[in-house]
Design a protein that fits this description.
Helix content: 25-40%
Oligomer: single chain
Number of strands: 6
Distance between the termini: 56 Å
Number of helices: 9
Shape: globular
Order of helices and strands: HHHEHHEHHEHEEHE
Low-confidence stretches: 4-13
Strand order of the largest sheet: 1-6-5-2
Structural class: alpha/beta
Length: 242
Amino acid sequence: MKQILQAALKTVFPDHCLLCGDLTDEMHGLCGPCWRDTPFLLTPGCKLCGAPLLGSDGGDGAICEDCRETMPPWDAGTTVMLYEGAARRLAMAIKHGDRSDLVSPLAQWMAPKARPLVETGMIVVPVPIHWRRLLLRRHNQAAGLARHLAKELGLPCLPDALRRCQATSQQKKMTKAESFAQQSNSIAPTPLWQHQLKGRAVLLVDDVMTTGATLAACANACHAAGARRVCVVTLARAVRTP
């Protein structure tokens, strides 16, 4: 009976591609063209950020060039896809396109990549957004991803564990050094909740990692609150082209 009802529902409400809206064979999936344009990272990558490793099988301890150049202050990290093609459009849709319907499916994509990082007592924490930007955007996409990801992983989520002490400008035209300098003192533990981080393992969540400056500031804030271990998971990772 359940299968009959599901078939009837699919007839009335067929599944559509998350990105373009065309018909697709599965719920929360992509159509063929969008799938081909989405650079999923299916093989092991850098142990700190998940970026692909050229000429390496991604074995234990493998680190990408960016992370070797500027060693991140967290213990391990992963990502779902490269920040290009359809992946970039998906990330932009949840950040600027009011596509809140995408947040839960994208968090489901993140869950299998994040699961190997999970440990007992871990808490999920999103990258914070400054209140001025929150007023303009009306949401924090990282917080949405963190809440749904925590549910998928069976972990508690503390969306207000970190706060932005100062507004920062867009990093698009900054050098890596400028980004790190700008973000260095911009994030701190929230006084009301920082005791929840003490002695805990933390899973930091963000939509996109570019230079890693924002996540580094968040990891440092977690350590300042006494976090025992910090790991990161992102939806997408921007990498330098040769």
